Amino acid sequence: RHFEILPCFLSFTQTEKDSFWLEANLDNSKTTVVSFMKFANDKIEELFIQQEVQNYCICPRDVTKKNNWLTDLGRILVFVVNFILFFGLEINDGKILDNPQLFGFSTNLTRIFLYIVGSLSLVFFFYMTIIQGIIVLKIQEKRAIKDSEQNKKKGKCYHYLKVIWYMINNKEETFQTRSIWCILLCLGFSVAGVFIDFFWFSFTMAYLVIFSPHILEVTNAVWNPKKRILSTVALSAIVLYWFAIVAFVYFGNDFN
C-alpha cells in the first residue's frame, strides 16, 4: 500500500533525497517500518503541496534547481549586475559610487542600465519570496490542522491563529524551509541599500543572492563528509572575496 511513494521519491532532486535520508537516519524514532513510512508520506505530502502551488504560479520548486527558465532568468540578471559593477570597479579605481561608467558609456547610461537590471532582479526575488512563503504556509497549515481536529468548529480566526502558533512552536522546521530565509536576507540588504545608494544595493544584492544557496548547502554539508571540505573551501573563498571587494569600494585609495 506504500508503493505510491516510489515514483514521488524518484522525482526528488538529489538535494531532497540527501535531506530525506539524513533526517530519517538521525531520528531513532524512524527506525521502524511503520514510523518510517509515516515520515516518508509526510515528505511526499510536502512535495504535493509544492506542486499544487506551482500549478497556480510560475515557480521553481528549489532556487538551486537547474533547467528552470525562471531560475535561470534571475541568475542572469544578477550576473549582469555583478559583471557591470565588477568592471566598473576596475575602471574607476574603486570609485564606482562617485562616477560609474562601463566600457566608455556615459554615467547616465550606466546608471539607467543598472536601475533597470537591478529593479528587475528585485521584483524577481520578491516574487520568489512570496511563492516560497505560500508553500511554507500551506505545509504548516496542513500540519496544524492535523494537530487539532477542532479548527473548523472554532472558525477561521482560530484556524489562522493555530497556524501562526504552530509556526512559532516549530521554529526549527520553519527556519529549515529551503532558501526562503536566505532570499529574505538578500531582500533586506537590497531594500536597505536603496535608501543608501542604488549601486551599493545592486552590488550587495548580487553577491548575496548568488552565494546564499551555497551558504545554505554548506550548513547541510557539515553532516555530509563528501561535500564538507569542498563546500568549506568554496565558502571561505567567497567570503574573503566579498570582503575584499567591500574594502576596495570604501577604501580604494588605501590600496595604492
Structure description:
- Helices cover 76% and strands 0% of the residues.
- The protein is mainly alpha-helical and 256 residues long.
- The chain is elongated.
- Mean pLDDT is 59; it is low at 60-67.
List keywords for this structure.
single chain, 256 residues, mainly alpha, 10 helices, 76% helix, elongated, Ryanodine_IP3_receptor, transmembrane, transmembrane helix
Secondary-structure map with pairings?
Layout lengths: L4 H6 L3 H13 L6 H24 L12 H23 L15 H41 L7 H15 L1 H5 L4 H17 L1 H24 L3 H26 L6
Helix pairs in contact: 3-5, 4-5, 4-9, 5-6, 5-8, 5-9, 8-9, 9-10
Stretches where pLDDT falls below 50 for ≥5 residues?
Answer: 60-67
Overall residue-averaged pLDDT value: 59
Sum up the overall morphology in one term: elongated
Q: How many helices?
A: 10
Distance between the termini: 71 Å
Helicity, in percent?
A: over 70%
SSE-based structural type: mainly alpha
Give a quick account of the main beta sheet: strands, pairing sense, barrel closure: none
Transmembrane segments: 73-92, 112-137, 180-209, 229-251
Keywords: Membrane, Transmembrane, Transmembrane helix
InterPro entries: Ryanodine_IP3_receptor
Q: Gist?
A:
The chain has 10 helices and no strands. It has 256 residues and is mostly helical.
